[in-house]
Specification:
Chain B: Pfam families: YCII. Chain B: InterPro entries: Dimeric_a/b-barrel, YCII. Chain B: This is YCII-related domain-containing protein. The complex is a heterodimer of chains A (411) and B (107). By secondary structure, chain A is an all-alpha fold. Among the domains of chain A are: 104 residues; 75 residues, Serine Threonine Protein Phosphatase 5, Tetratricopeptide repeat (Alpha Horseshoe), CATH 1.25.40. Chain A contains 21 helices and no strands. Chain B has one domain: Dimeric alpha+beta barrel (Alpha-Beta Plaits, 2-Layer Sandwich), CATH 3.30.70.1060. In chain B, the strands form 2 sheets. In chain B, strands 2-5-1-6 form a 4-stranded antiparallel β-sheet, with helices on one face. A two-stranded antiparallel ribbon of chain B has the order 3-4. The chains are: A mainly alpha (411), B alpha+beta (107).
Chain lengths: 411, 107
């Protein structure tokens, strides 16, 4: 990649959301903002290699996109009508200095994740408008047809306009509820990257995990006092830190117990641990931690152990007990049982897991966990049946390879 | 921006019938705060008549245009600056009416 290509790639990653967000505030129209931003980047791709990259690519892109947007409005000759239709606050002022809560990009994220939009649309729209991912990229990531993604985005934009979904950060009293919706979208993006589904994708989609972390960092910078934002960022960093050790060169999932801990990313772990410590201090001061903070703490325990045998399982179990109270879902109960197996033995854990059958029979991890516990109890036949079921339901290629080999070892 | 705010009742599981005083108080507030445009409660769907004069002669049929478990029981028209304001009012309206509420912008 040439230097200019690299500048363009970097500018796209760092400036796309800012350009779209600035134009959205200025013109009150998501479509216009997106088209003008895309045009500005297209011009950059054409000109920068010949003329050299400008000293301030972000400012260049914003100015160019601004001109393109004005050209479009003039061409369509219906500026007045457009403004009337826009359905979002319009303002001609120059961009505000980047205040903590009024950042244009944050408004854009909250608009894209508005609760009046369908969950799938929020995801697609956020990745497109804030992440700058193309429609085919989003379609690939979530294994849906490009036409469906395009339709979701179009429909969501139309609803934002027609129903006048405001382009703003929600008021202080609505903020906690609305932030949790944004975090849920970002965690979905991260999880799909971390355990990508489908026979034709890489088992880990580094682009998606990186994007989710980048956007969460953005929210963290803008809402530094929100405990769950810090928790989610810590959680993502501590999971991402283990990525280099998680898939073998043969494309097989390596479980936590067998990972080469020397290959973990020490910088990410240090940052994640720092955030967890910050939240522990807040918890000690009486702020009850939410789901992401507890999950981050669990991951902090795992990443603190130099060897699987050094893992403080009673600490892990105590954290799961806390998590069950905040999030009493069967998936949490399943993960808790894995810690129970380490402390009280696989038979106790199996009894707990079997109680979840009604609710988790369609979930591959339920069968994979049972298979492992049955194997440890020497019940080979039942274990093999459980591995079969897990392989049948799993969607991640590395996980399927691992489960298949494990089943084969039962002889 | 004007929104049509529909009150949706359920024939199988109807909302409670003692809501009128609370709705009246809520209406007073809508008027005082400048959101009120218009409102109306509707008689039972059995009292509806559908007219179809797209063909050669008008056809009148007894009953609503579609038979469903859920039906429109009444509506408001509100003037609100954006959907967040309309949804906040609708959240309150649903509690006040003890029924589901649909919010839909006018074109």
């Amino acid at each position: 990649m040439s230097d200019v290509d690299e500048v363009i790639t970097r500018a796209h990653r760092t400036e796309w959301a800012r350009v779209v967000a600035t134009l959205t505030r200025r013109f009150g129209d998501l479509d216009l903002a997106e088209e003008a931003a895309a045009e500005a980047f297209a011009i950059a791709v054409e000109r920068w290699p010949a003329d050299g990259a400008p000293p301030n690519p972000g400012a260049w892109l914003t100015t160019t996109a601004n001109h393109k947007a004005i050209d479009r409005i003039r061409r369509e000759g219906k500026r007045a009508e457009k403004q009337q239709e826009a359905g979002m606050a319009h303002d001609d002022d120059p961009p505000e200095p980047h205040g903590v809560i009024e950042d244009d990009r944050l408004r854009l994220i909250f608009t894209c994740c508005h609760p009046a939009l369908a969950a799938q649309s929020r995801l697609a729209l956020t990745l497109r408008m804030v992440g700058g991912l193309s429609v085919p990229e989003i379609a690939r990531a979530f294994l849906v047809a490009e036409s469906a993604v395009g339709q979701r985005i179009t429909r969501a934009k139309a609803k934002i306009k027609a129903a006048r979904i405001p382009y703003r950060v929600p008021s202080a009293e609505d903020l906690p509820a609305r932030v949790s919706g944004v975090l849920a979208v970002l965690f979905l993006v991260f999880n799909e990257g971390y355990l990508a589904t489908g026979p034709d994708t890489d088992p880990v989609r580094r682009d998606l995990t990186a994007e989710a972390i980048r956007l969460t960092r953005l929210i963290r910078a803008l809402l530094p006092d929100d405990g769950e934002v810090a928790g989610l960022l810590a959680l993502m960093l501590l999971i991402e830190a283990r990525r280099p050790a998680r898939v073998s060169t043969g494309g097989e999932l390596v479980p936590l117990a067998e990972q080469d801990r020397g290959a973990w990313d020490a910088t990410l772990i240090a940052e994640g641990h720092g955030l967890v410590r910050e939240r522990l201090a807040a918890a000690a001061a009486g702020v009850a931690p939410g789901r992401y903070q507890i999950l981050a703490a669990i991951n902090a325990v795992h990443t603190s152990a130099r060897d699987i045998r050094d893992t403080d399982w009673s600490q892990v179990l105590a954290l799961y007990d806390q998590l069950v109270r905040v999030d009493p879902s069967p998936v949490v109960a399943l993960n808790r049982a894995i810690a129970v197996a380490e402390l009280d033995g696989p038979d106790v854990a199996l009894a707990a897991v079997d109680r979840l059958e009604d609710r988790l029979a369609g979930y591959h991890a339920y069968h994979a966990t049972r298979a492992d516990l049955l194997r440890r109890l020497g019940r080979g036949g039942q274990s093999r049946a459980a591995y079969d079921k897990a392989v049948e339901l799993a969607g991640n290629t590395a996980e399927i390879a691992y489960l298949t080999r494990r089943r084969g070892q039962l002889g | 921006m004007q929104y049509l705010v529909s009150v949706i009742d359920d024939k199988v599981d109807p909302g409670s019938t003692d809501r009128q005083p609370a709705i009246s108080a809520f209406n007073e507030r809508l008027i005082a705060d400048g959101y009120w445009v218009f409102a109306g409660g509707l008689a039972d769907t059995d009292s509806a008549t559908v007219v179809d004069n797209r063909g050669e002669e008008a056809v009148f049929s007894d009953g609503p245009f579609v038979e469903t478990k859920e039906y429109l029981a009444g509506f408001w028209v509100w003037e609100a600056p954006d959907l967040d304001v309309a949804l906040e009012l609708a959240t309150e309206a649903s509690k006040v009416c003890d029924r589901k509420i649909e919010v839909r912008p006018f074109r």
